[in-house]
Design a protein that fits this description.
Layout lengths: L13 H14 L4 H6 L5 H9 L7 H14 L3 H13 L4 H8 L7 H15 L6 H9 L4 H24 L18
Helix pairs in contact: 4-5, 4-7, 4-9, 7-8
């Protein structure tokens, strides 16, 4: 069986070393996911550009999408990372658990967003008409819909990378849940 390892700063290109330094300064560490991308000359900078692009969605809304996408895709790394980030964005532990299950009983607009995102992910882009209508009825626009899909794409890249490699999770583990929701 192949074992996948996360490179350290000395094992990556100079360009990626500079990105590591920037991440270390900004975050206080280089997350293993980012470090793993640095095995490729351009993947880390490309991924960070996608992740940090300007969006019509607020940070809290992006976390809603990240949490439900990571849950549906079964990525324990991203569930852990986005549980921590969700708390930093003002969600409680209970709200995060709801979001991972595809609901947001605490906020009507976020409930429409999480259900729409879950429907997109679970149905490979073919969201239910009901979830799509609820998304627009909640005040979201077509520009927002485009950003929802881009955030799902961004998160799916990371979900798949960790699901393929299984490298060490360097965030506090997210509480496991079994989802009975029909997306």
């Amino acid at each position: 069986m192949t074992t996948f390892t996360v490179p350290n700063r000395g094992e990556v290109s100079e360009n990626n070393q500079a990105i590591f330094d920037h991440l270390q300064k900004g975050l206080g560490f280089v997350p293993n996911l980012y470090a793993y991308y640095a095995k490729n000359e351009t993947a880390l900078s490309d991924y960070l550009a996608l992740q940090n692009r300007k969006s019509t969605l607020k940070a809290k809304e992006r976390e809603v999408i990240n949490l439900v996408t990571s849950q549906i895709n079964g990525c324990q790394y991203c569930q852990a990372a986005h549980t921590a980030l969700g708390k930093m964005n003002g969600f409680t532990e209970e709200q995060i658990m709801e979001l991972r299950k595809g609901i947001a009983s605490f906020d009507r607009q976020l409930d429409a967003l999480v259900k729409f995102a879950a429907s997109i992910v679970a149905n490979k882009g073919k969201a239910s008409q009901e979830s799509k209508q609820a998304f627009f009825d909640a005040g979201y626009t077509e520009a927002n819909m485009i950003d929802v899909v881009i955030v799902i794409g961004d998160k799916t890249i990371s979900n798949y990378m960790h699901n393929l490699t299984g490298f060490e999770i360097d965030f506090p583990l997210a509480q496991p849940i079994s989802v009975q929701t029909v997306w």
